[in-house]
Specification:
Elements (H helix, E strand, L loop, with lengths): L2 E5 L3 H13 L3 E5 L2 H10 L4 E5 L7 H11 L4 E5 L4 H9 L4 E4 L4 H16 L8 E4 L2 E4 L4 E4 L2 E3 L3 H12 L5 E2 H9 L7 H15 L6 E4 L3 E4 L4
Parallel strand pairs: 1-2, 1-3, 3-4, 4-5
Antiparallel strand pairs: 6-7, 7-8, 8-9, 10-12, 11-12
Helix pairs in contact: 1-5, 2-3, 6-8
Length: 225
């Protein structure tokens, strides 16, 4: 059974995460600040840490740095701020994912599952690198390159791209993309999907046409290879 450490100064958030995590079969330990979290990491082994940024005593970024000195544990960061700088700084520290509050608990658990799956399959890197002409997606490393140049994607853009590729040549409706990637608790509309698709196409450059629009339906990934 996987062991999760949930670090957040808001008791209600810890309670909600615990409820959903235990329902999915995880064991959960809670910490209300970074100092407590570091102490727990010294004493115990955890499979994944869910870490808030804005906390008393020690913020999430500083806590992450200290944890990284102790152990290599996957970290998903939570933040009420969605600024690109915060996300990039978090990824530079080596976090595995970043979620902006308020978030869907179901989406959070889906990301927890995805991170643990990637970590556990890390020994199979060769089979987890997909190439479509000059587009390369490295699943364990969570990187995307276009003609040898790495491109920056948000976590959600990466998830959307990987989901499209995983289901390549299959027509995917906007509703299915919303429910499978954003979660059933997400309050949004088709424009959310369309905006992310537009950003993805811009990032893919010469391979933008791999993402095909199906009028009245949705999208699919198609390379004609």
């Amino acid at each position: 059974m996987y062991q999760l450490l949930v670090v957040d100064d808001e008791a209600k958030i810890r309670e909600v995460i615990r409820e959903y995590a235990e329902f999915d079969g995880y064991e959960v330990t809670e910490a209300e600040d970074g100092m407590t979290a570091i102490g727990l990491v010294k004493l115990n082994d955890y499979d994944l840490i869910i870490l808030d940024i804005m906390m008393p005593k020690l913020d999430g970024f500083s806590t992450c740095k200290e944890i990284r000195k102790l152990k290599d544990i996957p970290i998903i960061m939570l933040s009420a701020r969605g600024e690109e700088y915060d996300k990039l700084f978090g990824f530079e520290l080596g976090i595995d994912d970043y979620i902006v509050k308020p978030f869907s608990p179901k989406e959070l658990m889906a990301r927890v599952n995805a991170v643990l799956t990637r970590r556990n399959s890390g020994g199979k890197a060769n089979s987890d690198v997909m190439k479509f002409k000059g587009l390369e997606i490295n699943i364990p490393a969570r990187t995307v390159t276009v003609d040898g140049k790495r491109i920056d994607l948000t976590p959600k853009e990466y998830e959307l791209l990987f989901y499209l590729i995983e289901n390549r040549d299959i027509a995917l409706s906007r509703d299915k993309l919303l429910s499978d990637i954003w979660g059933y608790d997400f309050f949004g509309d088709d424009r959310t999907i369309d905006t992310h698709i537009k950003n993805l196409r811009n990032a893919l450059g010469p391979y933008r046409d791999f993402i095909v629009t199906l009028r009245g339906v949705g999208y699919k990934f198609e390379t004609h290879e």
